[in-house]
Amino acid sequence: MNDRANLSRRQWLWATVTGLLAASAARAGEPRREPTPLRITALRVTPIALPDPPILAASGCHGPYFLRNLVEIETDAKIIGIGETRGGERVAQALEKAREIIVGRNAFAHRGFFKELYDLNPACYAGIELACLDACGKATNRRIGELLGGPVRNEVEFAAYLFYRYAADHPKLLADRRLVDRRGKDKDALDDWGEVRTPEAMARMAARFQKQWGFRVFKLKAGVLPPNVELESMRAMESQFGGKFPLRIDPNARWLVETAVAAGKELRKVNLEYYEDPVRGQKAMAEVRRATMLPMSTNMCVTRFEHIKEAVQLEPIDVVLADNHYWGGLVGCQELGRICQTLGWRMSQHSNNHAGVTMAAMINVAAVCPQLTIASDTHYPWLPENADILQGGKLAIRNGRMQIPAGAGLGVSLDSDKVARAHETYRKCGMRERDDATTMRMVEPGWKSTPF
Predict the structure, then answer these.
(1) pTM of the prediction?
(2) Class level of CATH domain 40-148
(3) Domain-by-domain residue ranges, the chain?
(4) Nearest residue to 409 (alpha-carbon basis) of 107, 17, 141
(5) Which residues are catalytic?
(6) Which pLDDT score is estimated for 17?
(7) Which residues, in sequence order, are CB contacts of 224 under 8 Å at separation 6+?
(8) Is CATH 3.30.565.10 correct for 155-410?
(9) Residue 189: exposed, middle, or buried by beta-carbon count in 10 A (0-12, 13-18, 19+)?
């Protein structure tokens, strides 16, 4: 009886081992097959133009519209993923070239075509990565943050982004031949902010931003008026809030080193969170940082991973402004966060004009990057309330914070009618790349971005 039992066990073991060996041999003889659970079957690129108020920067005055490119990927599961990236023809052309690279590939394996798309244009990869992540989230009924390791925070703080500006119904701007909508004067104006070109008007704007959206951090886009006027604007906001809220200033590298150093001494008298890109280039930034001992931030001299080596040597900054359109998508921003942690840099987010898809992406970036602890910039309040392309209208800002959208993927959906109108505006207005100088010269002929 025992002999038969032992024999039975030996037979069972032998059968199991030989079966495993046979299966292994069969697999070894077959070509490796990559799973394709979410194969990309089509790519759709839609350039759009959305209304932009005449806000001012070192580059001039924003034109009547800002440009974005919408990205939609279709998959074999009939799931559509959406993305948004920088506007203009150059990015649109790169996206069109991307079609032959990504169609037939797995949306879950988007890092596999990172280099090909990034080499075309970093913004090209950013838009497609976002669409892939949105599709993957919808396929698995998970938010994007959960696909990227899980959010470390469920609400994200943003800063008020304050601009000097002309009134929306300035007669010379209403005569712009690129206008194709019905904006006009008074009640038909694009917005009711009026002209803001004095320290007193800037302080009133800041107070309204605080009351309307609850912002607790305030950034002045400088490099527009003479530096002494902009410093007075900072003092006016400091007085408006009684020093309670942190301030930032960003001259967009229009100041000379001596101007920036002198201004820095005055900025020590306000509640300054950081001094952003007052001068151009890492060497000049490092010089100002040493002379003023102020925390310096950038979205101009460290915007790619290859810039970091020089920054480690020169020490020009304390804060990096992440941007998924520059740094290699949402995953690239996560990688940047680890580097910031290693180098002792703090981290925030840069913003350019954008619609609600990018707004949702920015919320997700801040939610999944533990190192992103400083309030992010956003142009979103400057987008007129009825101008966004999302179903259900604009995402809410309350107490200076925004919640992660609750749905799968990005948690937002496109309104097809609004997208069609925005594309028609793009087609008719004739704007194909951003050109702030042209708009500025409509109001101030001969204007040049001469350094202060």
Answers:
(1) 0.91
(2) alpha beta
(3) 40-148, 155-410
(4) 141
(5) 221, 350
(6) 39
(7) 56, 57, 58, 164, 230
(8) no
(9) middle
